[in-house]
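lol forgot to send this yesterday, sorry. struct tokens for the thing we talked abt
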């Protein structure tokens, strides 16, 4: 499942150093179950089931203090969200302002 998510995402194009990609891969493998469970939990509370809505993702960012501790502001996260959903529009069929699981992985990597 992780292999398919990585293949569908733009993560390999974002990370262009083999050593960084190896470290990222190890981190994703070690934490994939927790990330998947988090995504599933967020989706169940979302109004766009089976996708993660924009509003629910921004709420997640506030609750996890991405804006406070990560040094990011909501405008930057909005731009990253827009880039992520736009770049993957060929795979998506209807919704533009929602995240699939592979996009959730991608956006977490971008924010990190």
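and heres what i got for the seq, position by position
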């Amino acid at each position: 499942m992780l292999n398919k998510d990585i293949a569908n995402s733009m993560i390999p194009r974002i990370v262009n150093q083999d050593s960084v990609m190896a470290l990222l891969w190890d981190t994703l493998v070690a934490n994939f179950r927790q990330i998947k469970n988090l995504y599933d939990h967020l989706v169940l509370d979302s109004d766009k089931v089976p996708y993660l809505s924009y509003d629910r993702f921004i709420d997640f960012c506030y609750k996890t203090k991405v804006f406070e501790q990560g040094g990011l502001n909501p405008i930057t996260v909005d731009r990253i969200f827009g880039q992520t959903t736009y770049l993957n529009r060929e795979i998506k069929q209807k919704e533009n302002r929602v995240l699939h699981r592979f996009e959730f992985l991608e956006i977490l990597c971008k924010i990190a």
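Helices lie at 2-8, 11-14, 18-44, 54-63, 66-69, 74-87, 101-111. anyway ping me if u want another try
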